[in-house]
């Protein structure tokens, strides 16, 4: 099916979506966004509050309203199959359903919500219960053990069925964590300590030596927990992780412990008016850098300056107490619970390059230049031996967030390439050489993880309509963005990736996560944006159909509708209010730029032909 593309239509859609994105800035000039509310977060927060309430005097009713409102919210958002999904748009899953079902029992709400509890129990039995939870996460105990602990605190799971976590290992210096291969990913140290302790409290190991070692490690590991808790109490700004830690310590009677008190305050501060909790407080740094990069070069200087200054303030200047990350990186948020990572850091570098002063021939401000170099150094030091980049920690272990990821690695490539183009060749020659070598090595890594159909899989994003919750459209679009610059644009890998994106376009002109998955604004915008970046013209049938689909969504106002494509830690689904708007702006901005350039080139050629009429060979 052939389609035409209207320059006026693209321009109008771009201006409308751009205005919407700009209107969503906060009072200080950058973006905060809004993460989806979460049944999983709500259930775990309720359990944490209930464990604290049980240890208080009967006359103390201060937590009752929070618990009652949370239970009511869960009841109102149960899916028709009896289960719960991570978001209000998510399919039911065994993990979230078991967490939700447990809090009805823990809070003695089963008689008030009989049908909800019965339906949830039937769903759990139908799906497979405890065995299904364990099977879902395999060897990774980062989330399966906390879920079972939550259920044990409600009296629904026996403690002896829960694997013991070696919390005593947290007493080792941080430099040894990689060597001992902790059974949880690098960001889950608080859970290792607190959940390991509550399981030990209720079910001591038979081995007398292990029992003694763990007894002696209790106080010391709790001191470690205190030292890594953020000032606002929220571990990673995440309600689930903070709740698991809080409920575990409170469940063993430590309700007055400082970690519990700060965790409680974080939960009370982060509850929403409807009684629910979000998966995380916000993604302010991430959404701001995404927005700046989508608007690429179109912000006025008075708009750039406050964002640039704010973003520079978010760079970590000291060793991170949680992951022991060196200075130089950025986290996803400006709040105390953030941790520097290899996806937000390249995003910040790209944004800072887009936020440089407009004046021609103006040198980079010294503070900007230093920040960029420190960010580049931080990324180079994090690169894994296989050429890719992990999320948080180099060489920590074999679990997903510590392994190289294609989408994150491609993001790093883009940042390093952009920095190399702006960094004077005379400055930091050794750093430039390191960056160039790292880029070449990473392209080799990306070639090895490209799938036979030409796609790549991302770590942080999925699609619930695709088998195994995969999202090859998102992953391929993000990786191909790294191939759009320089000689790699014409590589076999890029060609195969383009063919894959073309092959999974839906009949309506949009894209979902893969073949036949419903089209979404986020995935369609990403696919179109990437194909344009790789040199396909807006008039190309595939691109034109995608642009028309996207423009239609802008015109009818549905382009702001979110899709649960985001994965948080341990594959917890979320959606972000700004994602569809940001991705739409980026795609339409690129399309408008290409169309405008094409129109300018045609006008220039037309004028040249008028001044210099084309002569035939015979006339020559």
Element order: H for helix, E for strand: HEHHHHHHHHHHHEHHHHHHHHHHEEH
Over all CA atoms, what is the radius of gyration? 26 Å
User: What is the 3D shape?
Assistant: globular
Number of helices: 23
Number of strands: 4
Largest sheet: 2 strands, antiparallel
**Which bin fits the share of residues in helices?**
40-55%
Going by helix content, strand content and strand pairing, the class is: mainly alpha
Strand line-up in the sheet with most strands: 1-2
In round numbers, the mean pLDDT is 91
Low-confidence stretches: 612-620
Distance separating the two termini = 43 Å
> In percent terms, what proportion of residues is strand?
under 5%
Describe this structure in words.
- The protein is mostly helical and 620 residues long.
- 54% of the residues lie in helices and 2% in strands.
- The chain contains 23 helices and four strands.
- The chain has helices at residues 7-23, 39-53, 64-76, 94-106, 114-127, 129-137, 141-153, 177-180, 189-202, 208-228, 239-251, 258-270, 284-294, 301-313, 344-354, 366-382, 406-422, 429-449, 472-483, 492-503, 521-533, 541-555, 579-611, and strands at residues 37-38, 277-278, 566-568, 572-574.
- Strands 1-2 form a two-stranded antiparallel ribbon. Strands 3-4 form a two-stranded antiparallel sheet.
- A hairpin with a 3-residue loop joins strand 3 and strand 4.
- Helix 1 (7-23) packs across helix 23 (579-611), helix 7 packs across helix 11 (239-251) and helix 17 (406-422) packs antiparallel against helix 18 (429-449).
- It starts with 6 loop residues before the first helix and ends in a 9-residue tail after the last helix.
- The model is unreliable at 612-620 (pLDDT under 50).
